[in-house]
Amino acid sequence: MLAARLENLVPAHIKKFEAYTPSKPDDVLMKLYRCDRLFRLNNNENPLGPPPSAREIIQGFPPPHASVYPSGDAYHLRYRLAENFGLNPDQILVGNGANEVIGFVIKAFCSEGDNIITADKTFAVYEWVAEFSGFEARLTPLIDFAFDDQAMLSRIDNRTKIIFLCNPNNPTGTYWNDAKLRRFLDTVDGGQIVVVDEAYCEFVEKEDYPDGVALLAEYPNLVVFRTFSKMYALAGLRIGYLAAATDVVEIIRRTCVVYSVNGVAQAAALAALGDDDHIRRSREMVREGKAFLTRELSNLGLKTVSGEGNFMMVQTPVSDTLMYRKLMGRGVMIRSMTGFRYPGWIRVTISHMNALEAFVESLHVTLREFQ
Ligand SMILES: *Cc1c(COP(=O)(O)O)cnc(C)c1O
């Protein structure tokens, strides 16, 4: 198509938006960086893999079922989640990963001229979906690595539709406790939809960490996100969900295209639920891994930031994008944080000890090169 004519068809907010570049497949990366191993510590995946009950479902999925459309509203999964949470099944909406439900909520509530509020250094998809949909994303700076409630409240105006809070925050691991979240919701007082993204809630062991789902009964404007990608290790199957009041879900449901969640994902998620042993083992691995990294990285003189969740931030004396390439050359993939507005930092997923040892060793070698 003629460049000038194509240009005419593109809205201004798409013109200025830059597409996300996903990482290349393992085999391609290993050739590119000439390494014979690859530890993926960039996406906060759970290296223990799915719980045994979910593995069984994946393995036993009857091939003929591939020809049949899945349940369009994840019927059985919603009923089970509702039963577990003491909710009505109509309070749950399942999507192709939590990423998809972000889009549902923004489409449901925003129209031209509206805005959303979130932090500048958090999961970037809230901001991206808002901006490529033509809505302003108001970003407030973190304070002590945490979401700043006062700053967010001060940015609300009569065109603000949604406030996104990531609890605990990816990448800093900070969280709002129950009292702070309640105070915030009390102040917003139903004026906006408040989304609390709890992608990492299953990793949190702190007593004062709020259960967003339990707060739904008190706050009719609250929307909670959960995912099967992180603790339940089903990232490859793409399944997550939101929970909210029935009338809110009824509105959001209008914006979703049916059948985006495949049948294997629905069945595996259902099976994965409530495997307490899997959760216990995963938490243990994360606890040990964090202790190991904290000790080793402090020995290397590096500053770390870690709180809740299966990840940790590390400050590097060389540029984070250069560090990414250096570590890739040794078969260790981390997340460089320039894209999170944290230049000079990397984020590493807490994994098995052999992977973390490889990371520390590679970091050590790289730092020596630059001394
Ligand atoms: C990983 C992640 C998600 C997305 O999860 P999917 O269900 O895989 O789309 C959402 N929010 C945060 C904060 C995450 O880290």
Model description:
The structure is a single chain. Helix 4 (52-59) runs antiparallel to helix 12 and helix 5 packs parallel to helix 12. The protein is α/β, with parallel strands linked by helices. 43% of the residues are buried. A 7-stranded mixed beta sheet has the order 2-8-7-6-5-3-4, sandwiched between helices. It has a 4-stranded antiparallel beta sheet with strand order 9-10-13-12. Strands 1-11 form a two-stranded parallel ribbon. The longest helix is centred in the last third of the chain and has 24 residues, at 276-299. It has 2 domains: 2-49 and 276-369, Alpha-Beta Complex (Aspartate Aminotransferase, domain 1); 52-272, Aspartate Aminotransferase, domain 2 (3-Layer(aba) Sandwich), CATH 3.40.640.10. The mean pLDDT is 97. The protein contains 15 helices and 13 strands. Helix 7 links the parallel strand 3 (115-119) and strand 4. The chain starts with a helix and ends with a helix. Bound molecules: pyridoxal-5'-phosphate (PLP). Residues 44, 97-99, 123, 166, 170, 197, 199, 227, 229-230, 235, 240 line the site of pyridoxal-5'-phosphate.
